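Retro notes
What went well: the complex prediction finally ran end to end.
Inputs used:
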Amino acid sequence: EMQLVEAGGGLVQPGGSLRLSCAASGFSFSSFWMYWVRQAPGKGLVWVSRINSDGSSTTYADSVKGRFTISRDNGKNTVYLQMNSLRAEDTAVYYCTRGVDFWGQGTLVTVSS
Amino acid sequence: DIVMTQSPLSLPVTLGQPASISCRSSQSLVFSDGNTYLNWFYQRPGQSPRRLIYKVSNRDSGVPDRFSGSGSGTDFTLKISRVEAEDVGVYYCMQGSHWPFTFGPGTKVDVK
């Protein structure tokens, strides 16, 4: 059974940092692009970042460029999102996705003082 | 960025009756490989989104055949032939042809 399990969310102060992780199982992780998508409370869905299958190529939404870093460890079947200089507007549920077809359950990040 | 619009944003439905959601993109979604990467997602409250349709008209595994997608270029439609109670939720169209991928604002489907 395919699974994506996100972890690392929580409450952080503005300007702080968090590292999200997403552990994959049930499929050949190293063959797929992986993505992070976020959804602010009561709002729509926004793509945040993506990384290719071997980790050599990454892209970001303009809203997080320079602050967030996506990475992966194919040996551990895990993708990460390092989030620095967090702002109130980064408050959201962050979903990890395999390509665009399979999503994890999400982890909530709250940026507030 | 490509802007995705949906109509209506709210769709009260009668169980057993058909429903239709329109999605429009601000530019063509035909990718350089000739494919059109237009997807439809469904989200229940408190749950993660689930993809229903990919490349305009292809149903994902396990998606009931009452769901169908159509369209081309910049205009797309999701149809539910007979709405069932489990179909209540929010439907999003999403383009995967140009980065950053973008979603429509969502259409909330509920029972009249």
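What we learned: The longest strand of chain A covers residues 18-25.
What to try next: split runs per interface for comparison.
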